[in-house]
Design a protein that fits this description.
By secondary structure, the protein is an alpha/beta fold. The protein contains six helices and eight strands.
Length: about 230
């Protein structure tokens, strides 16, 4: 029987890196952890794909924060130039600031934190996980560009799940190269979804992504990052 949780939803404003970012927080009763979504290039907290995944996590007793790492003004610039979405240092600073903010909130501070990163957001997630190894307990990358995390990969301690479409050959190669840069002791798994392309638009592909992410976070958010 499917467990149904009472889930509280609210919009929040988070100070980060000198700006204020807007986020949607969903907090189930008896949440076992909190996953911060780091959106990819050209995406936002309104992404139907990320909202679908967040809904599955919520039903798995995992709180979610869908947050835009760029302000509205910055997003307008990025739509024209596509530059800020690849400014990984900027995205890491803001994601790390969001993580620190969560640690100061009375109703969130005791929750284990995980990251769900898509596209360039995966690089930001890994970079921030390297910055906060004692805080971030798990990372999931969906069709991500973990290679853009660069030297930070060698400092990641959190267990990492990399989900890539089997038909997304270029990104698959980049993921394999990035995984090889993780420390030998860091738990990692590459999940290839046969027949799926970069956005997992094929029938059943995104649903499988959501279940894989839920199971990974349920496994690791309650324990230490190295368990």
């Amino acid at each position: 029987m499917k467990t149904v949780f009472n889930i509280k939803h609210r919009e929040i404003r988070v100070p980060a890196d000198g700006v204020e970012l807007t986020a949607d927080l969903s907090l189930p009763d008896c949440a076992i952890g909190l996953v911060v979504f780091a959106h990819g290039s050209g995406s936002s907290r309104h992404s139907p794909r990320n909202r679908h995944v967040a809904g599955v996590l919520n039903q798995g007793a995992i709180a979610t924060t869908l947050i835009d790492l760029l302000t509205e003004e910055e997003e307008a610039v990025d739509l024209r130039t596509a530059e800020l979405r690849f400014d990984i240092d900027l995205l890491v600073r803001r994601l790390t600031a969001i993580t620190d903010w969560v640690g100061g909130e009375q109703d969130l501070k005791n929750l284990g934190i995980g990251y769900f990163g898509a596209s360039t957001g995966a690089a930001a997630a890994l970079g921030s996980a390297a910055e906060r190894p004692r805080t971030v307990r798990a990372v999931v990358s969906r069709g991500g560009r973990p290679d853009l995390a660069g030297p930070a990969l060698s400092q990641v301690r959190a267990p990492c799940l990399f989900i890539v479409g089997g038909d997304d050959s270029v990104v698959l190669g980049l993921n394999r190269a990035a995984i090889a840069e993780l420390p030998p002791t860091t738990r990692r798994h590459l999940e290839i979804i046969p027949g799926a392309t970069h956005l997992f638009e094929e029938r059943g592909a995104l649903a499988l992504v959501a279940v894989l992410a839920r199971d990974w976070f349920q496994k690791y958010l309650n324990g230490s990052t190295n368990q």
